[in-house]
Specification:
alpha/beta; two-stranded antiparallel sheet
Length: about 400
């Protein structure tokens, strides 16, 4: 039969008196009877509680030795004062929203590296005590404090890649990047449509994304449409702005890349041009990941079309590019192992680093390129860039909203 907790405590108190007075042989019988009455339990724990119940214990309380009667009927719950209190949680949530909802694993190094700059801004209202706590906060604590605030919006767009019909046999296929091949300058390149899930035509804007496999350096550019002219101009702009000389481009089978003009562009600059297999997005997994984490998270899934929208998109990317490369750390896969059960286990770097830090640490990057990156980093302010990015995104979204709600 079942007993309430209060009834169990009374039964324990009665059996404890009998148990401590009984001889060894009788104790076994009393213990069996006690456990049978309660419906079972651990014998060692039952012996411990019966021996302890109702005994006097000398304790040092308030500077004096006091005899205290031990009883399970009187138990005061400990109350702990939270170290990361409501004030810290409120500041953390504001910073999480400001830094565009990045995960705790990436948010922690951002805060530790830039807390001095962030705490000086009045908009956050960070006190000296909160600043000290944010400097030492761990990833698990960040994830716990943000649990109630997380809102996941999963939007899935449709593929707009059209295969290129020319030169496919002359462009070698690359199925994956070998770990010893990952040298600075080898990039994956891709385009993203901004059709908003509506009518597919040639009037809406696109984004060109290029990601360095070794450095995790990512550059994005706005395209008026997917015509060869705009794709070539954006690729050339990325080529000139990249922190290291580009040695290779790896694209999908889209017609914006698989054409004689883009191949000639690469051949003239001695850029190794390869392509992935059709309908195998994992062949370009590095740039595909950036399409979602960098582009979609920032400009979302709206439809952008017209000169005004493209100009607004370019402005957004002018602030986004330095943020993701100089301030945001990335989690990099360094190896993969196939387990006995057939599953693939990814092995990541132990320490998260920004692409800028990878440029400075990589032995194959020249001192001249490192000094140029350091000079650019010294002129940047993470909070100022984010504020400008927020304003640029608001302008972009207002243009998209005006287009969508305007007369047809």
């Amino acid at each position: 039969m079942g007993f309430t907790m209060a009834e169990r405590k009374k039964i324990r108190a009665e059996y404890a008196k009998q148990y401590r007075k009984a001889k060894k042989a009788d104790k076994t019988k009393i213990l069996d009877e006690y456990l049978k009455l309660l419906g079972g339990g651990n014998r060692k724990y039952a012996i411990y509680t019966l021996n302890r119940e109702g005994k006097n214990q000398l304790r040092f309380i308030g500077g004096k030795n006091v005899n205290v009667v031990i009883s399970s009927t009187v138990r005061k719950k400990r109350v702990y004062k939270k170290y990361y209190d409501e004030e810290v949680a409120k500041a953390l949530i504001n910073l999480w929203k400001f830094f565009r909802y990045i995960c705790g694993e990436r948010l922690v190094p951002v805060l530790r590296a830039n807390i001095d700059v962030i705490s000086r801004k009045k908009r956050f209202g960070i006190t000296a005590e909160v600043k000290k706590k944010l400097t030492t906060i761990s990833r698990s604590t960040v994830e716990r404090l943000l649990t109630g605030e997380r809102k996941k919006h999963k939007l899935k767009g449709k593929s707009t890649t059209k295969k290129g019909t020319l030169l496919k046999n002359r462009i070698p296929v690359r199925r994956f990047w070998s770990w010893d091949e990952k040298q600075p300058g080898f990039c994956e390149i891709d385009t993203i449509s901004h059709d908003g899930g509506g009518e597919i035509n040639s009037h809406y804007a696109w984004t060109l994304t290029a990601t360095d496999v070794a450095l995790c350096w990512t550059e994005v550019r706005a395209l008026k449409n997917k015509a060869r002219k705009w794709t070539m101009e954006a690729a050339d702009d990325i080529y000139k702005a990249f922190p290291v000389p580009i040695k290779g481009f790896d694209s999908d089978s889209g017609g914006e890349f698989i054409n004689q003009y883009f191949k000639k562009y690469c051949d003239d600059r001695q850029i190794n041009f390869t392509r992935g297999r059709a309908r195998h997005s994992n062949d370009n997994c590095y740039v595909e990941q950036k399409n979602g984490d960098v582009v979609r998270k920032t400009v979302e899934h709206f439809r952008y079309e017209g000169e005004e929208a493209v100009a607004a998109l370019e402005k957004v990317y002018s602030f986004l590019n330095p943020l993701i490369n100089y301030f945001y750390p990335t989690k990099k896969t360094i190896d993969k192992k196939t387990l006995p059960n057939g599953k693939v286990k990814k092995i990541f770097e132990k320490e998260l680093k920004t692409p800028y830090e990878r440029v400075l640490e990589h032995p194959d990057v020249s001192d001249e390129n490192k000094k140029r990156a350091m000079k650019i980093k010294a002129s940047l302010d993470i909070v100022s860039l984010h504020e400008k990015l927020e304003n640029a995104c608001e302008m972009l979204f207002s243009i998209a909203s005006k287009k969508n709600t305007g007369p047809s």
